[in-house]
Write a structure and sequence with these properties.
121 residues; 2,3-Dihydroxybiphenyl 1,2-Dioxygenase, domain 1; 8-stranded mixed sheet; 2 helices; 8 strands; 18% helix; globular
């Protein structure tokens, strides 16, 4: 059985967050999930996935144009421990956010992969 529950988020690092927000909001028009000062802008995509726009300064060691994948897992801490045992690099140890617990690991090409255990909504 897979630890990955479902594909959940695409994160884009933006050089101009306002311009990117306006493009996705006004051109593609997905429902806005979050648009708060000093926080990522989030849109709901089909199937419940999230498009999350981040300022360059808000994201760990990535540049505009970078991509970060995100997946929901049953237990972030257990998932990261398994990654460590397999020699997978951990870019960000597990930490708590209002929506749940997250961590970031690296894929073989160095792309960041966020894993999250969401709190019940």
């Amino acid at each position: 059985m897979s630890d990955v529950a479902k594909f959940s988020i695409v994160m884009l690092v933006c050089s101009d967050l306002v311009r990117s927000r306006d493009f996705y909001r006004d051109v593609l028009r997905p429902p806005v999930r979050q648009d708060l000062p000093k926080r990522p802008v989030r849109f709901e995509l089909c199937g419940g996935a999230i498009l999350s726009l981040h300022r360059k300064s808000d994201v760990l060691a990535v540049r505009p144009g970078s991509l970060q994948l995100g997946f929901n897992v049953e237990d972030v801490d257990r998932f990261v421990a398994d990654c460590v045992a397999r020699g997978v690099p951990v870019f960000q140890d597990p930490y708590d956010e209002p929506f749940g617990r997250i961590a970031i690991v690296g894929d073989p090409d160095g792309y960041p992969v966020q894993v999250a255990t969401l709190v019940n909504r």
